[in-house]
Design brief:
five-stranded mixed β-sheet; alpha+beta; elongated
Length: 330
Amino acid sequence: MKLKFTLLCVCIFLAGTIQQTFGQIISVTGKVRSKTSGEALVGATIAVEGTNTTTITDVTGSFSISANKGANLVISYTGLTTLKYKINSSTPFDVQMEEADKNLTEVVVIGYGTKKRRDLSTSISSISSKDIAKTPVADAAQALQGRVSGVTIVQGSGAPGGTGGTGIKIRGISSLTGTNNPLIVVDGYPLPDQQSDNVLNSFGTGDIESIDVLKDAAAASIYGVRASNGVILITTKRGKAGKTTLSVDVYRGIQQAWQLPTMLNAREYAIINSEANIASGKTILPKLADFDAIGREYGNGTNWLDEIFRRAAIQSVNLNATGGSDKVQY
């Protein structure tokens, strides 16, 4: 009897010690929902910190889990900020989760994974809306001109009102796809290739939040062979829920042709024309043979560049309206 009594005392002592060390086990219930919309979150993960005890919310956003009193309850959901609660009682939890505020400039999504931007600095170039606003340009293609290494921007036509479009070449010329135009992706949607007029001419710079240029094959691999000439990612400006904003961007100025060639006067033209005929084995034109006489008769002549080019006014007005609700933004 003495031996049995001693063992019983030891067991009672150990049970009391375990309960004191790990705390009282209680059942915790609650409901998880979105703070923005108030809707129940299905599939949110609830875990007891430091243990393998986990559960998920049902179709109503409710959950039930057993844990030691004083333990931490970690609640997580994709795209939302992870929350942590300390369990002090079995009182039901009413959890409201907010959208996670991530710094998207630090991580770049490439294909089926992510990489840090500093590891891809040579193959990815970005231009923000602030950079675009510094120079008044007609379209998104001109906003890239001279700002991104390895990208060549050539205006297709210099005629007033010309529709030749702007040609873009990223890291040279390719022949894999039958065209040298890069793939244009707007808000995640690849656009069909335009053989002559580049689609960037149809985008107003006031609607663009940022432009990213993918020049590396690994960064553009998810788009397949269409990305062999590079990819230009355009992110447009979005409205914010519950806030209506009107913005006006106006600029006015004077445009003038620069670095024009120097025109010849009548005497200089006669000399150049005669020298060209002699060099090609032709006869000098009789009416241009006497250089001095032509100079005295016609003087400097007509400077046709001065007649064609002149200063002209230029202006642009952009009016943007953004806003929306929790479900729809414009």
